[in-house]
Amino acid sequence: MTTLYRPSAETVAAVTRADRPVCAFLHDLDGLRRQARALTAPLPPGTAFFYAVKANSDPRVLRALAPVVAGFEVASAGEVLRVREAAGPDIRIVMGGPARTEEDMRVVLAHGVERLHVESLHALHLANAAAARAGAVLPILLRVNLAGPVPGATLTMGGAATQFGIEEAAIPDAIAAARDCRALRLEGFHFHTVSNNRDAAGHAALCAAELALARSLAREHGVDLRIVNLGGGWGVDYADPGWRFDAAAFAAALAPHLAPDGPAVQFECGRIVAAYHAAYLCEVLDLKRTHGRAFALLRGGTHHFRLPSSWAHDHPFRILPREGWPHPWARPALTDARVTLAGELCTPKDVLARDVAVARIRVGDVVCFEMAGAYGWDISHHDFLRHAHPERLFLDRGEVIA
């Protein structure tokens, strides 16, 4: 069953502050758990589904997901500490990402991260030195940047000249270097090639090809292949909130490429888990026309919710009407108009949706941006101009939790 969190005007009024214009993120943790279960249920035996913390690292999100997912994928020492604080000492953590530091390695070793995804020869040696000093053996995967070409998606991290991973042609040298790193144990390969691929069959074909490459590399270079991490990339369509990546079809297409004797396969998905079950709420502060175009000015903007600006799309929304009007002058309103939804920042780039059709919008109404749970607050420049932060509200079984 596909679900999408669409709070009512009554819910918004009940949970947000009444003494200031509405500006809030509202999360539905029940829906979040249902989404995670729907994604993990079709996966075949021998696979594990990790949540990519970068999508939304709020502790309440992590605690809600901890019983549902296999563990968490992190990209920084700070995310390791966030997961440990929120979900406890026993939850599984794997770590990837470029630009590693000695502090990252220290935290990985001190906080029980089970595997590090290594993206360069320098990072390989850095990890080996840190593990040797700690008297530990650190399991690693080598991240492969495919030779390409790769299928189209919103973002591409592999199959092209990017800062991610070790280019495929250099993987044999990396395997040889890893063999000389006595404090590391090479257990396989990591692929996170594309992000937001909406083609389930095409994504399954890419993952199958990556799995075959991992097996070939292991056979040719004598690697004991225990783990292949196929990354994330399961897509979300912001232009069509009702559309869903077909996780069941993806799992069915990939299943014939798995073997009972391994290697184990891992996924690390974020956006598809967190996106659907949160809304970003902004009260309309003003309406105006300039040079023939209409603008609604909101309490909020890209400093809270940068995703629409970073992806250059019109984010899906609804207008929640509010009938009270406390002023003696006429209430500004537009009907059957095309309106640009702009924020409160002093820049023309602070736009969440551009020239979108609305039946009616008034000062004092609330714009409800849907699908706001991933890569919103976490990637935004919160303190530009020092505007007040939004309320961040989390509903669990209908009640706001701390």
Offer a concise description of the structure:
This protein has 402 residues and is of the alpha/beta class. The chain has eleven helices and 20 strands.
Biggest beta sheet summary:
9 strands, mixed
How many discrete structural domains?
Answer: 2
Globally, the shape reads elongated
Overall average pLDDT: 95
Distance between the termini: 29 Å
Say what the CATH topology of the largest domain is.
TIM Barrel
Which regions have little confidence, pLDDT < 50, spanning 5+ residues?
Answer: none
- Tell me the CATH superfamily of the largest domain: Alanine racemase
The rounded Rg comes to 23 Å
What share of the residues does DSSP label as strand, in percent? 25-35%
The CATH class label of the largest domain is Alpha Beta
Question: How many beta strands in the DSSP annotation?
Answer: 20
Class by helix and strand content? alpha/beta
Word description of this protein:
This protein has 402 residues and is of the alpha/beta class. 27% of the residues lie in helices and 28% in strands. It has helices at residues 9-15, 29-40, 59-65, 77-87, 102-110, 121-134, 171-179, 200-221, 247-254, 271-274, 307-311, and strands spanning 23-28, 47-52, 71-74, 92-95, 115-118, 138-145, 155-156, 166-167, 184-190, 194-195, 227-229, 264-269, 278-290, 293-298, 317-320, 333-342, 351-362, 366-369, 391-396, 399-401. The strands form three sheets. Strands 1, 13, 14, 15, 16, 17, 18, 19 and 20 form a nine-stranded mixed β-sheet that branches. An eight-stranded parallel β-barrel has the order 2-3-4-5-6-9-11-12, surrounded by four helices. Helix 3 (59-65) crosses helix 4, helix 5 packs across helix 6 (121-134) and helix 8 (200-221) packs parallel to helix 9 (247-254). The radius of gyration is 23 Å and the shape is elongated. The model has no long low-confidence stretch (mean pLDDT 95). The modification N6-(pyridoxal phosphate)lysine is found at residue 54. This is Decarboxylase.
